[in-house]
Amino acid sequence: MKNKMPTDPQATHETVALYNRLFNLAEKGIMLGHQDDPLYGHGWYGEQDRSDVKGMIGDYPAIFGFELGHIELDSEYSLDSVYFSQIKKHVKEHHARGGISSFSWHADNIATGNSTWDCAQDTVVRSILSGGSLHKEYLVWLERLANFFLDLKDENGVYIPVIFRMYHEHTGDWFWWSNQQSTPEEYKQLWIMTCDYLQKTKQVHHLLYAYSSSNVQSEEHYLERYPGDQYVDILGFDHYLKGREQKNVEQYKIDFERNIKIVTKCAEQSDKLPVIGETGEESIWDPTYFTNVVYPIINKYKLGWILFWRNAWEPDKPNHYYLPYPGHSSESDFKQFVDKPLILTNKDVYQQ
Ligand code: BMA
Q: Which of 152, 171, 243, 258 is the S-S candidate for 213 at Cβ 3.0 to 4.6 Å?
């Protein structure tokens, strides 16, 4: 396979190596990913060496998703009450065992000071672009983000390459950077400004950039806000199974596969890596969700990974989990899914 180059022209040696390794691993199988996996899970928080996935299969997922929301506020912990120092520790540990980390960022709305979901106004993106009234303030936020990434080093002081899946689900309408809150051109400018700031101003050169839409209908829809091949390394989408009826399952299958087709086709055309950025079924109502719904579809495509969303620790969110935990009724279905040779966990990527 010819050498694949990430879009950052100054990407570190390790970042180039990771990018190539991801393509090679996609030839072998699909990596299992889980958001916040080692930090907390269903009914527990911050316990050494614990993970809901590990509790079921004896191994970590190959991909850890982590969340950076509130790093922009200079907070010590995320919007999900996770200390950023803990995230750094887990990135390092996972890297040391061959695992890979990917980041999302539910940044607050800088114009109102409210959450990432505050979509009451449609001028936030415009106001943070160059020349906008909040541009300077937003650069402070980006600087805090950059400083977090610049802290990700291994024990020899070498930057650990990671994936940044920024401004995600932008084809939806629930984040301040979404499709009702900015024009396609403004969104693209936001993306490019962020890459430029991280790379040129802060010299962050150990990121792979992932573009991840929400549910889309067509290639045109998927690419409407695409900032360009020179700013994106990985193509993905986020889509969930919602509702407990069979018709919801059938609809999910249709949408899920359509999105996979779009993403794999676009990725092939532009020589990028296709992935499933986020998916799952909250509480896992369908008893054969993993083996009967997800597997028969993903099995037909070449994909880097599939990331399931978090198993919330918060006592007020007892049903907010997307992978089972030991003792859950879907545990055996999940184990059968992971047992398929196609599904790669941490041990499968250890030496790659
Ligand atoms: C959402 C939910 C929220 C969480 C956010 C960021 O999908 O899980 O509870 O705060 O992601 O992780």
A: 171
CA–centroid distance, residue 2 to ligand 1 (Å):
38
Mind listing the pLDDT tens digit of every residue in the chain (352 residues)?
Answer: 679 999 999 999 999 999 999 999 999 999 999 999 999 999 999 999 999 999 999 999 999 999 999 999 999 999 999 999 999 999 999 999 999 999 999 999 999 999 999 999 899 999 999 999 999 999 999 999 999 999 999 999 999 999 999 999 999 999 999 999 999 999 999 999 999 999 999 999 999 999 999 999 999 999 999 999 999 999 999 999 999 999 999 999 999 999 999 999 999 999 999 999 999 999 999 999 999 999 999 999 999 999 999 999 999 999 999 999 999 999 999 999 999 999 999 999 986 5
Q: How far is the CA of 282 from the centre of ligand 1 (A)?
A: 12
Contacts of 100 (CB under 8 A, 6+ apart): 18, 22, 31, 62, 63, 64, 94, 162, 163, 349
Contacts of 320 (CB under 8 A, 6+ apart): 282, 283, 310, 311, 312, 314
Atom of ligand 1 nearest to the CA of 314: 9
| pTM for this entry | 0.98
> 277: Cβ below 6 Å to ligand 1?
no
d(Cα 72, Cα 106) in Å, to the nearest integer?
10
The Cβ of residue 314 has, within 10 Å, a number of other Cβ atoms equal to 11
Interval between CA 347 and ligand 1 midpoint (Å):
28
Q: Ligand 1: does its nearest atom lie under 6 Å from the Cβ of 79? A: yes
